[in-house]
């Protein structure tokens, strides 16, 4: 029988509370332990990075130096990619295991273009901004030897999104891609440019204003250095 694609949807909405961790120097600990919730969750732009955390009400983001803020308000990871990691690691990975706010189904999250817009449910409008760059807190949470290198080489990082229109969402909400920009810069492309293939950095500028400010800064710095 022909394969029937899974409808694009949020399988679960996941939030976490702050907990102590030896894998971070943040006094507040970490909010990486995200768990699915069975209630509506309000999502809105949280504010500037460094002063604001998650875009999801009731969700903790502790290390505001590196996480949270308007351009990293929501983190999405595909259930399909978690399934691949389950097979490779030989262990169960529940929805939220990677610290994602949205565990999605039927969406090529890493193939999403920077600036791509998702309508989630009837109200929420999100815009893809950047990939997740793995940190030692993530490595400590997973407890897998060589995890940072392994995750980086796989180049399936999941996507950060900003909130363009706030709204309530719940597990099971449909996701509709309502805008795809005309350039080559996918989440996976930007991730490789920021990690293993730095020579790609100048090309990420094609994503324009939707590009995460930190990625734009890195690309401009690289281009300037190469021009000398």
UniProtKB/TrEMBL annotation:
MOSC domain segment(s): 35-178
Record field: transmembrane: none
Gene3D superfamilies according to UniProt: PK beta-barrel domain-like
Region feature Disordered, mapped onto this chain: 19-40
Organism superkingdom: Bacteria
Pfam family name, one: MOSC
UniProt-listed PANTHER family: PROTEIN YIIM
Protein name listed in UniProt: MOSC domain-containing protein YiiM
Native source species: Streptomyces iranensis
């Amino acid at each position: 029988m022909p394969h029937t694609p899974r409808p694009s949807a949020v399988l679960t909405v996941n939030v976490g509370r702050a907990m102590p961790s030896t894998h971070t120097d943040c006094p507040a600990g970490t909010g990486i332990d995200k768990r699915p919730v069975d209630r509506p969750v309000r999502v809105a732009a949280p504010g500037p990075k460094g002063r604001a955390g998650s875009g999801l009400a009731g969700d903790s983001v502790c290390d505001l130096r590196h996480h949270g803020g308007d351009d990293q308000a929501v983190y999405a990871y595909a259930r399909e990619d978690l399934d691949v990691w389950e097979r490779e690691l030989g262990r169960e990975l529940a929805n939220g295991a990677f610290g994602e706010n949205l565990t999605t189904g039927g969406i090529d999250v890493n193939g999403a273009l920077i600036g791509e817009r998702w309508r989630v449910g009837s109200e929420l409008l999100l815009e893809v901004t950047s990939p997740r760059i793995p940190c030692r807190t993530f490595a400590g949470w997973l407890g897998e030897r060589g995890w940072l290198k392994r995750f980086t080489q796989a180049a399936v990082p999941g996507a950060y999104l900003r909130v363009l229109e706030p709204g309530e969402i719940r597990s099971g909400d449909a996701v509709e891609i309502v805008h795809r920009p005309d350039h080559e810069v996918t989440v996976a492309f930007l991730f490789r440019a920021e990690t293993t293939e730095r020579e790609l950095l100048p090309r990420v500028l094609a994503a324009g204003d939707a590009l995460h400010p930190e990625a734009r800064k890195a690309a401009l710095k690289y281009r300037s250095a190469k021009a000398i």
